[in-house]
Predict the structure.
Amino acid sequence: MDIKFISPGTQIFKRDSHSFQSVLDIYINQKYVLAIFPGRLSKNDYLIKYREFVNGKESRLRTPKHIHWVTDLLIKKECKPKLTNELINALLYSWNNSSSISNLNKNSIVKILKSSKVISNIDYYSKLSKYGYYDIEFLIILAELLAVQEKTNNTSAFMFRHILEKSLTNDLFSIISTATHNGR
């Protein structure tokens, strides 16, 4: 696994005619960059965006949606159900033990990722990269960031956890409904 942290980040995100520079860029396997931007929901809120590098070209900056990563996880589960369920359970354990960050900076984010038991065991799940769209390293790092993001914005939030729990079932309707719920 090849991960590089660059701070301050180099990615630029435009919103409401303002430009924002990423706080931290996380390069994964020379294939993805996860960029962390200041958010608006709370003092330490952050937005996660990413780019892919394919055939020497980079994609536009994208916001990962729950439906994207859970669909990929379901494809992996179809091919390797036992290993994928182990990963989901590990991510649930991580979510249950994660907490909000006290400062939005490189050190806070890197500390979270370096202390992750799931990331430290990432090689165990590497076979899952053969299936679906995303590399397993990207999915696991994204999942860790989403868990902390959720806890940072609202300590009683549960959407990410709920999607992981539903992913352990084979109820496709329920999984997709949960992943696409927008609070309305």
Q: What stands out?
A: The chain has one domain: 3-180. The radius of gyration is 16 Å. The longest strand covers residues 46-54. The beta strands are 3-6, 12-15, 18-21, 24-28, 32-38, 46-54, 57-58.
